[in-house]
Every structure is written in structure tokens, then in C-alpha cells.
Amino acid sequence: MSALVAAANGPVDRAFEHSLVYALIQIDDPPQTRGMLLAGRTVPSSARRVGLIALDQMDNGGLSAEDVIPLLSVTDARLKETANWIAAHHSDWADALMAYISSRFREAPSDPELPAQIAKYIQTPQMQSLVTAQIKDRSPARANLLSVIADSNLKTVPKEWPSAIAGQMRDADDNIARAAIRAARAVSRTNRTDSSMREAAYAIATDTRRGDDLRLEALGLLSSDLDDSLFKFAVAHLDSSHPPMQRINAASVLGKVTLSEEQLGQLANRLPEAGPLELTRLLSAFDGHATEDLGLKLVAGLKQSKVLTAVPADALKTRFAKYPESVQKSAAELMTVFNASAADKKKRLDEFEASLPAGDSHRGHLIFNGTKAACAACHAVGYLGGQVGPDLTRIGSIRTQRDLLEAILYPSASFVRSFEPMIVTTKDGEDHSGLVRKETSDSLLLVTEEKILRNDIKEIRPSTVSVMPEGLEQQLTRQEMSDLVAFLKALK
After folding, report:
1. Which CATH number, 2.60.40, 1.20.1080, 1.25.10, 2.20.110, labels domain 95-338?
2. pLDDT top residue among 336 and 26
3. Distances in Å between the alpha carbon of 340 and those of 299, 334, 343?
4. Topology classification of domain 342-416+469-489
5. Cα gap 279→311, rounded to integer Å
6. H helices within 206-355, ranges in order?
7. Which phi and psi angles does 438 have, rounded to 5°?
8. Which residues, listed in sequence order, are joined to residue 438 by a DSSP beta bridge?
9. I need a surface site. Which of 124, 330, 342, 353 has the fewest CB within 10 A?
């Protein structure tokens, strides 16, 4: 036994550590193993970690909350991680853990480690009650607590949460309100909602003193009709002068809420102005009104769109199948855009490349980060940019100009590994497309922040359509395209 303790005192890799733990379990001497914990600072953290795991795995190890909870705040990261992991698997320690975390709230409410600890136990009624109380008491940590709720995978939530969250949505601090909106979105997915959250969302959306970003996020919580003022507010943010995320949020709102036929007619007239990131989202708005008049307006708007190829051809076929024959006949002319052969694509690519003037990488950098191309909304260069698409920091060292042009003109031609799009079909027949951002045992989270419970999933299959839409080159002049490609080529 003493030899094992001595071996554990030195540097150990994971395989050797596992062997030491297994040996201690086989010896099954809890009192001596406990000495590795009780010796405190006289024993290295590596040995305490080995003793902790072994005691937890012994049939009669007798590990208690009093042994583990003091280790939740030690400075050694691996020992702390192990203590947290063990504590999270002991539901019988819930009261002691709540007492510990409550004391941490009193002593250091802004401790950055608190949210991670709370997240580990958020499924317990005791922790949920503690979180509710802290939010209602306007704890300094409430923004972090709301983020924990937003990121939780709970299937059911306490009945007090909707009203508590609604109260934080009305907070004058936009950061608190934004965290509350994210939490409200998560709670809404569990079907635990009430009028208080919808009323709070409406209050934010109509408050002109609030930032446009926040107002659009609040609109996303509404599923009922939009009055004319909110409809005009959302439509105005489809304009290319607005930041990419505002345009996407506005399009998502308009695609989800119930619009009147008059509003849909106005929206159809705005389709030619919609960029590729917005167009697909906007089309969902028309699914519930398959009238001939509206269908013809929809076709007319799409015919004038420069970015029509951003919409998957199958999605258009399915959508227009719901409309009268006269609309389907008119829509058939749209489909010719999607029937280009490989030779046609190569010819277009040749002509496009030959027509590009000399590019300037400095101007291209501005275009990459600007609102027209919106590249930075999805792609990172260095430590700046989005995480939806591949990192482009060194793209110029592995891709030629021709490769870059093809990726922009025909983004669905090939996919970067780990960025393959998926189609998730739910049991009610609805398709959800996108990249899987996070996968757990009971749900999938898409990059669109759309969470789908596994119990609701009928099928998951690869998609042939990239989440990067076609038609981006239509947003830019040839000079701007050349400058953008010059910038990407310079990223070595």
C-alpha cells in the first residue's frame, strides 16, 4: 500500500494513474486510502486525486460529501474537476452541495466558476430552487444563472421559471435582458411558458429605447401576428445596410410568425432585395397561405432575385406543390436556374475568373468584415469572426484562386470535414437543416440555436446543400469580388 501511495505522489500519466486506482480498489483498504485525502497539503494533488477516485469506486469506500465538497474550491484544476465529477453523481449529497453553493453566492457571487458548478447540478430540484431564488433576488450573478438555464438540456423546468425570467427580461440593463431572452427561448422549448414571457418580449420589441439587436431577439420569441409597426421594423432590417445578424434575425422572425396576406404581399415585393442569408428563412412565411394571388406574387419576387440559387431546388418544388396549378406553371420557369450541368458550371467559372480585375487584399479585408458579404458572421480569421463555417486563417496556403472562386459560386460542390450539413426530420414531418453544434444523449442543437429533442426525431441524414448559400457573388461588384479573393489568397 505504501508503495502505491509513493508512486502516486510523483508525476503520473493517465494510464499509470488508472493502474494505481485499480490496484487500490483491489486492495480494498478504505482507511489507508482515506489517508491520501486527510493528509491534505502534505500529499501532492496527484495522490489525493487517485485516492478520491479509488474511494468512490470501492464498494465500502465510505466517501462522503464532507470529503469531497472542500475539494470543489482547491486551486489544482484536475483535482477540482474530479471532485466536481464525483459530486455530480451523488444525488444524496444534494443538500450539502446546495449549502456549499449558497455560501459561495454569499461570499463571491461573481465567482466565474460558479456557473459551471451550478450547471452540473441544474437537474436537481434543490439547485433549481436556488437558481430561482437568486434570480428573483436580483443576484449579481443572475446573468450567469440565466445563461445556465439557456444552455441546460432540461426536458421540464420549474413552474416558477417563466415569471422569474420575464422579470429579468424587463431589466433596464440590456445584457441582463439579452441573457433572459436566451433563457426564455430554452424554457419555451420545454412547453413550459406563460403569458408573462410573451408580454415581456413584446414590451422589449416595441421599446424604441432598446437596441435594435435586442428588439429583434425579443421578436423571435413571438409566434403570433405582428402589428404593422413591428412588421415594418422587421422588414426594414432586411436591408443590406444593416449588420448580418440583424438581417438574419429579422428574416427568421418574419419566417416564423403568422403574417396577414396583405403583409405577405408586401414581403413578396421585398424578396428581390433579400440577400442569400435571408431568402431561405423568409420563404417559410408563405407556407400557410397557398392562394393563387399570393403565389403569383411570390413567383414574381423570386424571379427578380439575384440570389435565387441560395434556395435549395427541392425546397422550392415542395413549397410550390401546395399552390394552385397556375402558380406551379409559373414557378416551373424558376427551376431552369438549377439545371446547369457540370460543363455549364465550369464555363461560368472560367468566364467569371477571366473577368476579374486586379484585386487589393486591404480592400478585401474590409469587404470580408463588412455587411454586404458578411463573411465574418460565419468564418473566423485569427481570433475574430464566427464559428459556423471553417476557420479561414490559413486558407490562402491550401487553396488556389480557382478553389476560392468555386467555393463562393458553388458552395455545395464540396464540404470541409466536420462542417457537413445535416437534415433532421421530426416525427411531425418537419425538416430542420443545418450544422450540428452540440449533441447530447437527449437532444441536438443546431448552429441556428434550434434545439431538437431526440424523442421528436424521426430521421437524420446528410444534406447535399451547404449552409453557405449560393449567390453571394451577386451581392458584390466584380472589383469587390476580386478584392475579397485577394484577401483570402493572402491568408497564409
Report:
1. 1.25.10
2. 26
3. 20, 12, 8
4. Cytochrome Bc1 Complex; Chain D, domain 2 (1.10.760)
5. 7
6. 212-219, 228-236, 244-256, 261-270, 276-283, 292-303, 313-320, 325-332, 342-355
7. -150, 140
8. 445
9. 342
Cell 440583424: give the residue: 246
Which pLDDT score is estimated for 414?
A: 65
pTM: 0.67
Report phi then psi at 381, rounded to 5. -130, 115
pLDDT band at 130 (very low <50, low <70, confident <90, very high): confident
CA 275 to chain CA centroid, Å, is: 21
- Measured CA to CA, the distance from residue 165 to residue 77 in angstroms comes to 33
- The residue behind cell 460543363 is 343
Q: Which stretch of DSSP H or E encloses residue 439?
A: strand 436-439
The domain ranges of the chain are 2-89, 95-338, 342-416+469-489, 422-462
Answer yes or no: are the C-beta atoms of 158 and 132 closer than 8 Å: yes
The rounded distance, in Å, linking the Cα atoms of 46 and 341 is: 63
The single residue listed with the C-alpha cell 490562402 is 396
Task: Specify which of 204-218, 394-408, 439-453 reaches the highest per-range mean pLDDT.
Answer: 204-218
N-terminal to C-terminal alpha carbon distance within the chain: 56
Is 157 in a helix, a strand, or coil? coil
Predicted local distance difference test score (pLDDT) of residue 50: 85
Exposure string of 438-472, with b = 16+ CB inside 10 Å and e = fewer, is: eeeeebbbbbbebbbeeeeeeeeeebebbbbbbbb
Is the predicted pLDDT of residue 39 greater than 60, yes or no?
A: no
CA 271 vs. chain centroid, Å, equals 26
Percent of the chain at pLDDT > 70 equals: 87
Cell numbers 439587436 label which residue? 213
Per-residue pLDDT at 112: 74
| Contact yes or no for 219/253 (Cβ under 8 A) | yes
Structural contact between residues 369 and 239, judged by C-beta atoms closer than 8 angstroms: no
* Maximum pairwise Cα distance, the chain: 87
